[in-house]
């Protein structure tokens, strides 16, 4: 429905006076919680269905000492105002002249208005589920309106859990190019006319229509986000694996409502409970799940080491064809989820803000309902899986003994490092050097980076990040010797940490150094071979003749002898070379009594 279609609709009106009154105790203070919500992809569709726009006029600005003198509330369904509540309230407190000048409500008008004990039971009845947080409310500068409503409910003994959105903050965020974001200015932006501005019911109606208009704007901006979420969703075969994992956890009696799934840019599927607790991938080589190396006992599935980005030597890849191949991992999956679930609860219990942040984060990811899980498992059981064995190209294991390490560096020995027994002091003194070194490394200034890392190390900074940065710098300039040496030190010093990433980096550096040294060895052997062959050829191959071949003949053209060079003819016949050349060139007929001509 369009923004202005509601103008043709007829509104229902709730009577300002009813024949009954909900009880509220004057001897107790009500417990009222008011929570501000932001509009995002997780709740925008819910807001579209139903909300209540709200507004109050008051005797002043202090929600504790001042009182509400007029209430307006309008129920919207799918953008259409279908029911409203509006009344003056006599709070037994005089309204200030300054307030009357704004809202045009006078003390005379309030004298004949119903009192709080009459009005608020009616308001409670009208708001209904909104007081349990099941229907969201909205107001312009909402903290003012709901501050007054919360204090009034509490003072009169009513309990409430109110969830609301603020059209003022929403308009500031999503509407640009207007002089200000007062309600009348935003209303004008949407082409709305308020004939009785600063009166609660009319203001509430306009506020609701503003909210609906802002939702239109927000939804346009969310389209790209929706596409991104769709892009992050696993495909149907991957979802069958997700369903199998979720079924394992559910059969253990766990709450699976917090489990979410996301396919990241590297095509790994993250299984999350706020934090990632499992990861698997459908790769060309085969489908594999990543688990800790120490959990592989008794698993009869193909296994290979993980890359650095997958956790290094701490983790392994376990290959599978069907989701049901993962049954032996049931206990591991359950423990991983339990640890993650506890971490999530710990984070969410910190504050309402962290809980809200976590819920919003989870709302952006794919979830699987129980019915969808059963359907996916049914499809998985009836799917024909490729029974071909996973063919792992197991590489030759290259160890330290296979390489010669000759790293030249300027690092001081460990016994000369400052603050080595005081981690905090070492961190404070060394961290700035590491930070500058990281900046230099990322800008391609590797030598400068290494020098700064040396200073960070010398001053006592020994976090795993330092050794990781060292390794990346040495890798960049292909100094595998120093990369191995510094990683050896990092692994030795960080035994209390998970050093799988450092170990994986070192193993890779050893392989690269081995390949480099093998290439150098082969190149040297080839060079030596070529030199030896050249020497042999020089010895065995006869000396190449120099000059032109020449023929010695009689006057009638009979060949007497052929010579490779004039020099050899001179040596044998005893005629000078000039005479022979002149005879061959026709300058003279004979040389030494013979005719001569060049063979070519």
From TrEMBL:
Q: What Pfam families does the record point to?
A: RNase_T (PF00929)
Q: Name the Gene3D superfamilies on file.
A: Ribonuclease H-like superfamily/Ribonuclease H, Winged helix-like DNA-binding domain superfamily/Winged helix DNA-binding domain
Transferase: is it a keyword of this entry? yes
What molecular functions are annotated in GO for this chain?
3'-5' exonuclease activity; DNA binding; DNA-directed DNA polymerase activity
Provide the alphabetized UniProt keywords. Answer: DNA replication, DNA-directed DNA polymerase, Exonuclease, Hydrolase, Nuclease, Nucleotidyltransferase, Transferase
Q: Carries keyword Flavoprotein?
A: no
Ranges for domain Exonuclease: 50-220
Entry's CDD domains? DEDDh
Q: What is one GO biological process annotated to this record?
A: DNA replication
From the UniProt record, list the coiled-coil ranges: none
In terms of NCBIfam families, this protein maps to: dnaq (TIGR00573)
Protein name from the UniProt record: DNA polymerase III polC-type
Gene source species: Vagococcus fluvialis
The organism's lineage?
Bacteria, Bacillati, Bacillota, Bacilli, Lactobacillales
């Amino acid at each position: 429905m369009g923004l202005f279609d509601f103008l043709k609709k007829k509104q229902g009106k709730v009577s300002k006076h009813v024949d009954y009154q909900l009880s509220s105790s004057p001897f107790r203070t009500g417990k009222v919680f008011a929570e501000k919500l932001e509009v995002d992809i997780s709740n925008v569709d819910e807001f579209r269905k139903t909300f209540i726009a709200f507004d109050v006029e008051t005797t002043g600005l202090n929600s504790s000492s001042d009182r509400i003198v007029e209430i307006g509330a309008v129920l919207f369904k799918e953008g259409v105002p279908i029911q409203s509540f509006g009344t003056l309230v006599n709070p037994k407190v005089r309204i200030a002249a300054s307030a009357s000048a704004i809202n045009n409500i006078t003390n005379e008008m309030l004298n004949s208005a119903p009192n709080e004990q009459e009005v608020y039971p009616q308001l409670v009845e009208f708001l209904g589920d909104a007081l349990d947080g099941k229907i969201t409310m909205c107001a312009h500068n909402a903290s003012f309106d709901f501050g007054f409503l919360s204090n009034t409910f509490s003072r009169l003994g009513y309990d409430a859990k109110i969830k609301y959105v603020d059209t003022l903050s929403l308009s500031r965020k999503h509407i640009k190019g207007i002089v200000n974001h007062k309600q009348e200015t935003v209303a004008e932006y949407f082409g709305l006319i308020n004939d009785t501005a600063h009166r609660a019911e009319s203001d509430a109606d306009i506020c609701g229509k503003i909210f609906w208009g802002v939702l239109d704007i927000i939804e346009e901006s969310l389209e790209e986000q929706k596409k991104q979420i769709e892009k992050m969703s696993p495909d149907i075969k991957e979802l069958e694996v997700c369903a199998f994992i979720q079924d394992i956890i559910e059969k253990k009696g766990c709450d699976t409502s917090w489990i979410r799934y996301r396919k990241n840019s590297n095509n790994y599927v993250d299984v999350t409970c706020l934090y990632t607790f499992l990861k698997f991938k459908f790769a060309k080589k085969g489908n594999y799940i990543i688990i800790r190396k120490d959990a592989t006992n008794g698993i009869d599935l193909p296994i290979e080491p993980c890359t650095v980005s997958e956790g290094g030597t701490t983790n392994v890849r376990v290959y599978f064809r069907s989701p049901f191949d993962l049954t032996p991992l049931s206990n591991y999956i359950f423990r991983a989820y339990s640890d993650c679930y506890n971490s999530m609860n710990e984070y969410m219990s910190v504050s309402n803000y962290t809980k809200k942040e976590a819920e919003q984060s989870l709302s952006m990811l794919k979830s699987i309902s129980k019915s969808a899980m059963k359907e996916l498992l049914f499809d998985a059981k009836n799917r024909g899986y490729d029974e071909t064995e996973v063919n792992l190209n197991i590489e030759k294991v290259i160890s330290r003994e296979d390489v010669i390490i000759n790293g030249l560096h300027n690092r001081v020995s460990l016994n000369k490092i400052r603050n080595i027994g005081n981690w905090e002091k070492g961190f404070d003194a060394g961290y700035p050097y590491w930070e500058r070194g990281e900046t230099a490394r990322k800008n391609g200034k590797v030598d400068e980076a290494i020098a700064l890392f040396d200073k960070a190390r010398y001053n006592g900074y020994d976090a795993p990040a330092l050794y990781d940065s060292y390794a990346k710098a040495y890798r960049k300039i292909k100094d595998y010797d120093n990369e191995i040496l510094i990683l050896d030190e990092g692994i030795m010093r960080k035994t209390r940490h998970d050093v799988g990433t450092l170990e994986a980096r070192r193993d890779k550096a050893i392989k690269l150094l081995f390949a480099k040294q093998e290439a150098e060895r082969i190149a040297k052997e080839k060079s030596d071979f070529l030199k030896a062959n050249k020497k042999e050829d020089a010895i065995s191959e006869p000396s190449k003749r120099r000059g032109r071949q020449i023929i010695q003949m009689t006057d009638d053209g009979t060949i007497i002898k052929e010579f490779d060079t004039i020099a050899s003819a001179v040596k044998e016949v005893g005629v000078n070379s000039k005479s022979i050349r002149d005879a061959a060139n026709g300058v003279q007929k004979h040389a030494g009594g013979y005719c001569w001509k060049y063979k070519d």
